[in-house]
């Protein structure tokens, strides 16, 4: 496996379910991100981790709970979601968190989530 | 004012046309600038970074205007395969979190 992988690719869940999204990066990066992409809206940053430590929580509801057990893996635990949470959830990684022209983010293919 | 603004389009152009997109940003302390491309139902991928002196990669040219706080992307000799959404991304000084624009949709038709 190369790059950034995400599982599952598609997920349908009810509002009372609990599920988890998984992201794995094979690039040796130190920073990982969760984004939400809804139709007709820009990418919304949800969480940022640097070396397994959460450094950004962008006012995300507590029904979304991230976990970063090591620098290669990132999870997003979901519980009691709402239909408006239906979206594409993208994971990304970058070498580190310094600004500059080379801090390219590599995205996974995303999980398309539908909440019924 | 939104931090990063783009005309959502769509821009509908024939093959071979030249098309230009602009992106404005509000934070004058911004230091890093990128164009990403996102195909339908796929993840964003880096198209090119934007340097102060401007840069070119084949048919693609990116330019930065700090005084007016905008970046541009010029695509020459458009191909059908250029059809995608082009995302402007800006990184502010002092922050490591890049800000994405909502994207500009390009449709190249035969």
Main sheet properties of chain A: 7 strands, mixed
**How large a portion of the residues of chain A is in β-strands, by DSSP E?**
over 45%
What's the tally of helices of chain A?
0
Low-confidence stretches of chain A: none
Give the overall silhouette of chain B: globular
H/E element sequence of chain B: EEEEEEEEEEE
Mean pLDDT of chain A: 90
Q: Percent helix among the residues of chain B?
A: under 10%
Order of helices and strands of chain A: EEEEEEEEEEE
Average the pLDDT over all residues of chain B and give the rounded result: 91
**Percent of residues in β-strands of chain B:** over 45%
Low-confidence stretches of chain B: none
Number of strands of chain A: 11
Helical fraction of chain A: under 10%
Write structural notes for this entry.
The complex is a heterodimer of chains A (116) and B (110). By secondary structure, chain A is an all-beta fold. Chain A has strands at 4-7, 10-13, 18-25, 31-37, 44-50, 53-57, 64-70, 73-79, 87-94, 106-107, 111-115. In chain A, strands 2, 4, 5, 6, 9, 10 and 11 form a 7-stranded mixed beta sheet that branches. A 4-stranded antiparallel beta sheet of chain A has the order 1-3-8-7, with no helix packed on it. In chain A, a hairpin with a 2-residue loop joins strand 7 (64-70) and strand 8 (73-79). Chain A starts with a strand and ends with a strand. The mean pLDDT of chain A is 90. Chain B is 0% helix and 56% strand. The model of chain B has no long low-confidence stretch (mean pLDDT 91). In chain B, the strands form 2 sheets. In chain B, strands 2, 4, 5, 9, 10 and 11 form a 6-stranded mixed beta sheet that branches. By secondary structure, chain B is mostly beta strands. Chains A and B meet through strand 10 of A and strand 4, strand 5 and strand 9 of B.
């Amino acid at each position: 496996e190369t790059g950034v992988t995400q599982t599952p690719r598609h997920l349908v869940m009810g509002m009372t379910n609990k599920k988890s999204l998984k992201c794995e990066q094979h690039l040796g990066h130190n920073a990982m991100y969760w984004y939400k992409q809804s139709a007709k809206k820009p990418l919304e940053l949800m969480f940022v981790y640097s070396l397994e430590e959460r450094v950004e929580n962008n006012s995300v509801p507590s029904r979304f709970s991230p976990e970063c057990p090591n620098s290669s893996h990132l999870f997003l635990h979901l519980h009691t979601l709402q239909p408006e949470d239906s979206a594409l959830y993208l994971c990304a990684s970058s070498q580190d968190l310094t600004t500059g022209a080379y801090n390219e983010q590599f995205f996974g293919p995303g999980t398309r989530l539908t909440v019924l | 004012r939104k931090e990063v603004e783009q005309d959502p389009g769509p821009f509908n152009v024939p093959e071979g046309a030249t098309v230009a997109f602009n992106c404005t940003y509000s934070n004058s302390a911004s230091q890093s600038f990128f164009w990403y491309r996102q195909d339908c139902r796929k993840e964003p991928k880096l198209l090119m970074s934007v340097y102060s002196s401007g840069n070119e990669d084949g048919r693609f040219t990116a330019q930065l205007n700090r005084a007016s706080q905008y970046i541009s992307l010029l695509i020459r000799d458009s191909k059908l395969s250029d059809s995608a959404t082009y995302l402007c991304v800006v990184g502010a000084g002092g922050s490591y979190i890049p800000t994405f624009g909502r994207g500009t949709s390009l449709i190249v038709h035969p």
